[in-house]
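can u do me a favor
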């Protein structure tokens, strides 16, 4: 978050993504992308900005060096052309496909940017302490607090047992989301899957208002029946 603030203060960013070391491990094992650095670290960020003029590149490099001096960054690389940029974006864009073989239990949640580090730390602690055999893979649009939490199924565990355990994890995850005033669904909607958990990020009064608005536009309850809430 310090890196995000440093760059946003001086440059108009068009993207600020993140992923963790688990995502990198799976990507490297899959062999579709190149190792970004010689050393490994816990988290990685991928930021993008338009640089039509050379001074912007110089400014970006100065900000990067400042982040290095502050100890916020261990290493970094900057693309010099569109081809290199596309290769870097593969590190982020190929994650979902790569981890799909591990039958991930997915959650897209969001919290205020200022709460992101503490939130991730607490969720990692919850999963590791209660389910030490579960591997957690983080990635997402961290620039707006939008986080994708993926819990990977252990090889020796059945899919049904795994998802049953993850339903228990959900309660802990959403209680933490509620603690930080976040949302149980960041970008993919509440739908039917998140419907039982809507109360973690919306009060009873807010939910009643939502129902009343739906009645105005859909009095016969024929649009997206059963989604978000029951009428």
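np, heres the sequence
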């Amino acid at each position: 978050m310090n890196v995000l603030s440093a760059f946003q203060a001086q440059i108009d960013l068009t993207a600020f993504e993140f992923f963790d070391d688990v995502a990198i491990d799976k990507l490297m094992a899959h062999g579709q992308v190149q190792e970004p650095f010689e050393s490994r670290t816990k988290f990685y960020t991928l930021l993008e900005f338009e640089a039509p003029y050379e001074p912007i590149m110089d400014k970006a490099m100065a900000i990067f060096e400042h982040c290095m001096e502050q100890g916020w960054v261990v290493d970094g690389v900057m693309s010099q052309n569109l081809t290199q940029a596309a290769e870097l974006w593969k590190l982020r864009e190929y994650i979902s496909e790569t981890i799909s073989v591990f039958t991930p239990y997915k959650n897209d949640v969001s919290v205020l940017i200022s709460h992101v580090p503490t939130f991730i730390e607490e969720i990692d602690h919850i999963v590791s302490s209660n389910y030490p055999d579960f591997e957690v893979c983080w990635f997402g649009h961290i620039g707006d607090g939008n986080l994708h939490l993926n819990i990977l199924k252990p090889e020796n565990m059945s899919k049904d047992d795994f998802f049953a355990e993850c339903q228990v994890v959900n309660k802990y995850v959403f209680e933490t989301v509620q603690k930080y005033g976040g949302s149980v669904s960041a970008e993919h909607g509440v739908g039917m899957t998140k419907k039982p958990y809507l109360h973690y990020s919306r009060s009873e009064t807010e939910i009643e208002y939502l129902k009343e608005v739906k009645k105005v536009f859909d009095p016969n309850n024929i649009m997206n029946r059963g989604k978000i809430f029951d009428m």
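The helical segments are 2-8, 21-30, 54-69, 82-93, 95-99, 116-130, 159-179, 204-217. hope that helps!!
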